[in-house]
Design brief:
The protein is mainly alpha-helical and 522 residues long. Helix content is 57%, strand content 5%. It has helices spanning 49-60, 65-97, 102-121, 126-156, 183-202, 209-213, 216-228, 232-249, 253-272, 288-297, 302-305, 311-323, 348-381, 385-410, 427-445, 448-456, 461-466, 517-521, and strands at 3-5, 11-13, 16-17, 23-24, 162-164, 167-170, 173-176, 179-181. The strands form 3 sheets. Strands 5-6-7-8 form a 4-stranded antiparallel β-sheet, with helices on one face. α8 (232-249) packs antiparallel against α9 (253-272). It is globular and about 65 Å long. Keywords: Cell cycle, Cell division, Cell shape, Glycosyltransferase, Membrane, Peptidoglycan synthesis, Transferase, Transmembrane, Transmembrane helix. The chain crosses the membrane at residues 67-88, 108-124, 136-154, 174-196, 208-226, 232-249, 256-278, 347-376, 388-415, 427-444. Peptidoglycan polymerase that is essential for cell division.
Length: 522
């Protein structure tokens, strides 16, 4: 059954009847290959480049894509940072104190504080950030003044540190009651909030020089001097932050040109004052800032300076060369054993290159690229000028600091001593960085599409209480008010004229006086 014979006597396949009443054709000779074997494989769908790009575009078009990209990239960088801090400090900590987890436990405590700061900052609205800008800026300036005065006093008294009451200053750090604080990190966040508020308030008036001169330029110049006296690298990061802020505001190019000239003059002066004891320099000694700059533009022979001037850079190059493509293995690097200076902080990227190789470095750089894309995406999508400017400034701050650090390690830029965000050891920098990312997360939830999606399907109430409240809905257009319902007869003053035009409100139609006065009084 199921077969019939053709005219030539051969059997032919008949289509079988399916339960629904239709017919399903059987596989005949045409379904096989030319050689009678198995049929050719159908091309796989969804695995081509166009399909992959379409799928990626679909994921990025989701309302909460910015938020998830931000917390995933920042979270992965934080985990990698804790791992690399443990790898870079465990051997030295065990040799000095007998405990390999001393530094990583301290960094983990600051990471927990930073996560709490992230949680608090993502719950705050834009109005709160506007109000916090000026107090934070004045606090940072006050701490920087105390730091610089104490450091100058230590220079005059030929000591390493100076103290006044419970406050002690050493180079770039203040110790307040045993708690180590770096005021320049707080100055970055304060400048973002205050600068974005001032620029958003001025708006299109920024095209005039007098609007920049009051109060943006004087305050930024004071902050640059206070920060750059001890830490030139952080001052350059602040300069990049201001450039990103003004670029997002649409300032004209000639303003950028004038500010660039003023910035270069200021950097030159801050390099010169290192001979007077600024930063870690000493009066009468070689200007270490100038030496670093000259060694970058005219690098000496490594065989001649590897034990003196370019020792740190030489050891970093050895670590990168030793790592190769895939590294020697996590925790198996050898140059961190007190060979590479500041292996846990400024040159932790060299430790990553030695232990994880080019692949590990590429992963970290990719995560920073995702963070940069997400920050600029948030700045482009939000509709509030303050949010847009603050998001662009924070993104410029984090990415420029990462570029300066990595460029200094690999030799593409001069060494400035800036830490690598999320990765390097440092409590103040990690807490402030996570707080800034929390502000970006708040802005990501306030994107128009994200806000509408969250209000359309709001999470549970306990989630909103424990994690983040619902963002405000974007502004809606006011609908035209419908005319009020008729209430009795229309007054004579508003009656339609014969030409279909309403009489002006309050206008009285002319009435001809008729009759005597006594009749009118009736």
């Amino acid at each position: 059954m199921g077969e019939g014979r053709g005219t030539d006597g051969t059997s032919q396949a008949r289509p079988r009847r399916e339960p629904g009443g239709g017919r399903r054709p059987e596989a005949g000779p045409t379904a096989r290959g030319a050689d009678g074997g198995a049929p050719p494989a159908a091309p796989l769908r969804g695995l081509d480049a166009a399909g992959g790009l379409a799928a990626l575009r679909g994921l990025l078009d989701r309302p909460m894509a910015s938020y998830y990209l931000l917390i995933s990239s920042a979270g992965l960088l934080l985990l990698i940072g804790l791992t690399m801090v443990f790898s870079a400090t465990s051997v030295k900590d065990y040799a000095e104190a007998g405990n390999a987890t001393t530094s990583v436990v301290k960094q983990a405590i600051f990471a927990v504080i930073g996560v709490v700061a992230f949680w608090a900052c993502q719950r705050l609205p834009a109005t709160t950030y506007r109000a916090l800008g000026r107090p934070l800026l004045f606090t940072a300036i006050g701490l920087l003044l105390v730091l610089n005065l104490l450091v100058a006093w230590a220079r005059l008294s030929n000591t390493d540190s100076a103290s006044i009451g419970p406050i002690e200053a050493y180079l770039n750090w203040l110790f307040i009651g045993g708690v180590q604080v770096q005021p320049s990190e707080l100055a970055k966040f304060a400048l973002v909030l205050w600068g974005a508020h001032v620029v958003a308030r001025k708006g299109a008036a920024l095209g005039w020089w007098r609007e920049l001169a009051t109060p943006l330029v004087p305050m930024v110049g004071l902050l640059f001097v206070l920060v750059g006296y001890n830490d030139l690298g952080t001052m350059i990061c602040l300069l990049a932050l201001v450039v990103g802020l003004l670029w997002a505001a649409g300032v004209r190019l000639r303003v950028f040109g004038a500010l660039s000239v003023a910035g270069l003059i200021g950097v030159g002066l801050l390099i010169a004052v290192a001979s007077l004891g600024a930063g870690s320099g000493e009066r009468g000694a070689e200007n270490y800032r100038l030496a670093r700059l000259m060694s970058f533009f005219s690098p000496p022979d490594p065989e001649e300076c590897k034990l003196t001037d370019c020792y740190q850079l030489f050891q970093g190059r050895l670590a990168i060369e030793h790592g190769g493509w895939f590294g020697v293995g996590l925790g198996k690097g050898s140059l961190k054993w007190d060979w590479l200076p500041e292996a846990h902080n400024d040159f932790i990227f060299a430790v990553v290159a030695e232990e994880l190789g080019v692949v590990g470095c590429a992963v970290i750089l990719t995560l920073f690229a995702v963070l940069a894309y997400t920050g600029l995406r948030i700045a482009r999508r939000v509709d509030d000028p303050f949010r847009r400017l603050a998001a662009a400034a924070v993104t410029t701050w984090l990415i420029s600091q990462a570029v300066i650090n990595v460029g200094g390690v690999v030799g593409l830029m001069p060494i400035t001593g800036l830490p690598l965000p999320f990765i390097s050891d440092g409590g103040s920098a990690l807490v402030v960085t996570l707080a800034a990312v929390g502000m970006l997360a708040s802005f990501a939830r306030a994107e128009p599409d994200a806000a509408r999606a969250l209000h359309a399907r709001p999470p549970a109430r306990w989630v909103r209480l424990l994690w983040a409240p619902l963002p405000p809905l974007p502004g809606r257009r006011r609908r035209t008010a419908s005319p009020p319902a008729a209430r009795g007869p229309v007054p004579r003053a508003r009656q339609r004229r014969s030409d279909e035009q309403a009489a002006p409100r309050g206008a009285r139609q002319t009435r001809a006086r008729s009759g005597t006065a006594s009749e009118r009084r009736r």
